[in-house]
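Fold Annotation — chain and its backbone

Encoding — discrete vocabulary of local shapes
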Amino acid sequence: MNPLLSRLHPYPFERLKELSAGIVPAPGLKPIGLGIGEPRHATPALIEEALVEALPGLSSYPATAGEPALREAFAGWLRRRYGVSVDPFTQTLPVNGSREALFALAQTLIDSSRPGATVVCPNPFYQIYEGAALLAGAQTAFANSDPARNFAADWSQIDAATWSRTQLLYVCSPGNPTGAVMPLDEWQRLFELSDRHGFVIASDECYSEIYFRDEPPLGSLQAARLLGRDDFRNLVAFTSLSKRSNVPGLRSGFVAGDARLLKAFLLYRTYHGSAMSPLVQRASIAAWRDEAHVQANRDLYRSKFAQVTPLLADVLDVRLPDAGFYLWAAVPGSAQGAAALAGDDVAFALQLLAQYNVAVLPGSLLARTAQGCNPGAGRIRMALVAPTDDCVEAAHRIRNFTLSLREHP
């Protein structure tokens, strides 16, 4: 057995399942799940139709590099969305969802024979970053989110010695779970650090198309272009159709950036067996070429957040994020029940489930203790992915639960 498997932490949802094993949720209330960030809006008909029309493609093996038309669709979307020009055949690759690609890139790039090989991650973070690092034989270092900076990661917490050992930096913008978007000056700082120390930046941008302000979030390739880095050196951007187009089951996305890195990544993927199904490729082409369904999806989220956020902001420390479909809320200073501690996100989540049949994810399960604290502690993540009526109903229940804590501390 691979000994590195023993270094993996339990996935947050498995840990929450263990913690809630003995809980019987209020039987008279419909269960509402805000814990898992799984898009539940309807899949656009144009994607379903493209899948059906592509059925004859099942008779052929797909190429790992993808069909030319698919890679041209990637390049076309990058040009329209970010004003960025890439060579579709050297600077893009299809991937089976951003999750598998975020993991696989670490296996491609990490040289574990180098002493102290390190991967830097934001904290809280998408758990794949840490798992990818550990199974590649690297150690991890974490930059905690800073509430004073809209919960953006504080990269100054990583010292020069750690940066010198760093081979890969994961960033997530818009962030999961905080929704924070990295500004241009932050990108400039990270590019300068990458140039100085030679590490690769993996930019997870799967939430880029769900935003609440007029200006769409800045992307990493766009930032590189604005800063004169048109070769995208040591930069790989990851994006996906799952959130943008409501097709998490399609497992479709792409990576773009440094041609030298993508050449090595293609070699790894060829041996790993990561070719995208011909059906998925054709459906993906249709999705990347269409923006009408993306705007409709964004409007649904905007309407949902506009109704839910004010209800919760009256009783919890929470605000509209820059982007994404999560609310990142601080739990009250006290929680009901003798075993509960002040600001205990796990106790809050378990009692909410028991009394009101609403599932949320404790923030401490999404983070690690670093710099002397767990930056997710005392917060909960709420994924507003359910239908609007369910999300509004959940907000009323969370509101009532929180008010009850004030009355019976």
